[in-house]
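Moderator note: this is an archived Q&A kept for reference. The question asked for a predicted structure of one protein chain; the sequence and the answer are reproduced below.
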Amino acid sequence: MVKRCCWGTCNTDNRYPERLDGGVIFVPFPKLGRNREKAMKWIKLCGRPHSQLNEETLKDRGKAKHLYVCSKHFVNGQPSDRYPDPIPASNYEVVTPCRKPPAKRPLNFSSTPAYESKRQILSTVPYMEQQNEEESIKTPLEPPEADHSCSYSDIGPRSNDEDQPQTPNPFCNSQLDLLALVAENTALKEEKEKLLQANCNFQHQFSEQQQSSIKRFAYQNLSNKDCHYYTGFSKEQFDDIYTFLVPTADDPIKWSKSIKGSKVLPTSDQVLLTLIKLRQNFDFQHISHLFEISSQDCSTIFTHWINYMFFRLGGLVIWPHRDTITEHMPENYKKDFPNTFVIIDCTELKVQKPSSLHRQSQCYSDYKSATTLKGLVGVDPRGAVIFSSMLFSGSISDKDITEKSGFLELLSNLIQCGKLQTGDGVMADKGFHIEKEIDALGLKLNIPPFASCSAQMKATEVTETVKIAKHRVHVERAIARIKQFKILSGKISLTFFSIIDQIWLICCLLTNFMPFLIQDKDI
């Protein structure tokens, strides 16, 4: 390991043997976490520029492990009890040995001293109290003897009247005065402790009031406009989503003790955090500032809630019965395609380029000229999502994704359970060459007619193309609504690949909590 001396202009380095003459040893720099005061003192003594040697340098383990001070800069060639620190690199500083601890001086109570300070008074209190107790035990009723050595001439002239009481000497009862001072000192200490406790309580109450006065970023403090901006839903729609996800008062997710953010944030704010990430795709660092938790906790909470929402939303039966679709079908659509109950289309999501060349070739899309993931979406005549596949590599064709996504198998199961009938239609674009597969199920495929190479399209074919395009545009509007979740509209990070299928399905099904795509004015 590289060892360099960080003292002043010293260039001692264990990589250069010529600089190690005289048996130089390296003394490691004090650790900032173990002895902060000593580490800061050594920084000052070494005299390096602040940009080269500072507190941040010691916090960086990669740099701190190479910091040493060679034995050339110690008084005895190495740290000792008397000189534990290196000599200063600056000329104006002087090396001073460690101060010896002060010796305890014995107290002499042979005679009553002349007390000059409070410290001396307090130091002699235990002895005085013990002496008074012994005297009180020996002669409890005997009054204290007068100190005849005291002189009254210094106090004032004596009166000629013998009956007049003499003025007592204030120094005669020094022990009683001392006890009075001790009692007063004890009372003052108790009063000081009470005032300090009252001040501490006041500061605590003031800080709580100040924190409560500041509105924390939370769902309860958001207006309806702000909630729609952050999540894409109004507060009423958010309440519907939350009621569906959390039907009971219990926390649906069991958190480990290491995730402190789950204890700080209530469940509603955890759902808000997840929807903010889906809708606005803010960095976790930014979200951590909003909710005042760590970015790592934000990432963990988001991942747990994505898996839980996938479990809840993935269990829904989102394909309604054909009679229900017919009842809510727009009039213009019912007039043109009364038996077509689903419109399908594919969409692609751009992703970061994988490092593997094989993965790059699989995900490369000629249509987008980028690495993408591809998904299949099916909507009913009013624009609600009733089918969503998992994501496939961008190079897959529309026909292959229709087969591998399980859409044809789903149609067969719907016919068996009565939700579809033989002769019902499926609307798609020209790229879906699945007419044989749809006919094998007993259904009809409505796609725009193809123009022949020799002649122009017939008038009936043009009319049919316009009619299909007029209604097929709603699936594209539904896909555009899904991509309003910015986590899908931008280039998806490779870090989300483990949960990208869950994110895709959740964003698709969350659009069903929004108002109908085709309103009455569009019918």
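Archived answer notes: The longest helix spans residues 174-213.
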